[in-house]
Amino acid sequence: MRPTLKDVRGSSRRQAGGQGRTRRLPSCLRVFLGGRSWGLALALGLSAARAAGERPAPPCQELSRAIDLGNSPLDDRRVFCTYAKDLVVGACCQDTLHACLLAHPDCARARVLAAVGLATIASGATEEAALAAAARYTGGLAYAARRPIDLHAAPCRGKGPVTLVEFSDFDCPHCAGAAPLVLALEERFPKLRLCVLAFPLHPHSELAAAAALFADRSGRYWAMSQALYESQDGRVGLSEKAYIDSLVATGKEVGLSPAALRASLAGGGPLALVQRQSAQAQALKIPGTPAFFLDGHPIESLPLSQLAAAVADEKAYLKAHPK
């Protein structure tokens, strides 16, 4: 049964839990059509546009100067438009997401919630699912909701009020792709502290993590990390022996002792530390890599390209809510 129209004026917020994607008509069509169906409304709207010799503008086209809607299908744009008009941003803009993006396009919270909504809807989810993802992000900002993360013996660099933690796998192509984005973040936010924890999920990748932690003992973790990502394609799929030979060759390039590195990969401290870090990732129920936390706040449903907005939002939150 096709959905019937409802006059939603006066109920500007939706609650999660509905089924299927919602659709909203222009107010003039809602008044004119009364209880007629969405299909008829769409047909009349298209007929009017054709009669005027014009193509109807894509939904929320007015937001294109604030966010990149890309090549989103029309159905996705309609759902996002409803999402943007139903969601209240808070923080730097006490208004709907739609209004915030128009009036305050640089508002970090608005940009994060827009990216969360677009990514969730692009996966085929409903508006209700997108609203729920936005609620998880904003709810996770509360200090009581943050997850404690053990950074003992974790490689860290930088100093500042905000700590970005990445759980990574040196054989994960997405982690390799994230590496330059994380580096750009550090350049944009000089007072950002970055820490990396191992969560190896590929065959033999715990050995790569152990090799990087071995390099950390001599201050070469970051050089080894970059070298491991750069040599990833030539290492994945090798037998364990050939894999270790590849790690030793990579370590030699960054100044590590081949004999000492090979001995550490046979068992010992670095491998034990990798296992502890991996156990922590499992306890946090991390579904895959890379996974990011900002001061214990999990950054989920957010494209990596918007990590900078999340860091800016975290800085603003800390300033508005000092501990």
Helix-strand layout with pairing:
Elements: H1 27-33, H2 38-51, H3 74-86, E1 88-90, E2 93-96, H4 97-103, H5 108-122, H6 127-139, E3 156-157, E4 162-168, H7 173-188, E5 192-198, H8 205-216, H9 221-230, H10 232-235, H11 240-253, H12 258-264, H13 269-283, E6 291-294, E7 297-298, H14 307-320
Parallel strand pairs: 4-5
Antiparallel strand pairs: 1-2, 3-5, 4-6, 6-7
Quick structural gist:
With 323 residues, the chain is of the alpha+beta class. The chain has helices at residues 27-33, 38-51, 74-86, 97-103, 108-122, 127-139, 173-188, 205-216, 221-230, 232-235, 240-253, 258-264, 269-283, 307-320, and strands at residues 88-90, 93-96, 156-157, 162-168, 192-198, 291-294, 297-298.
- What CATH calls the topology of one domain is Glutaredoxin
Tally the beta strands.
7
- Unreliable parts: 1-52
Strand order of the largest sheet: 3-5-4-6-7
Which CATH-level-2 architecture of one domain?
3-Layer(aba) Sandwich
Secondary structure: helix percent: 40-55%
CATH superfamily membership of one domain: Glutaredoxin
Major β-sheet, in short? 5 strands, mixed
Structural class: alpha+beta
Element order: H for helix, E for strand: HHHEEHHHEEHEHHHHHHEEH
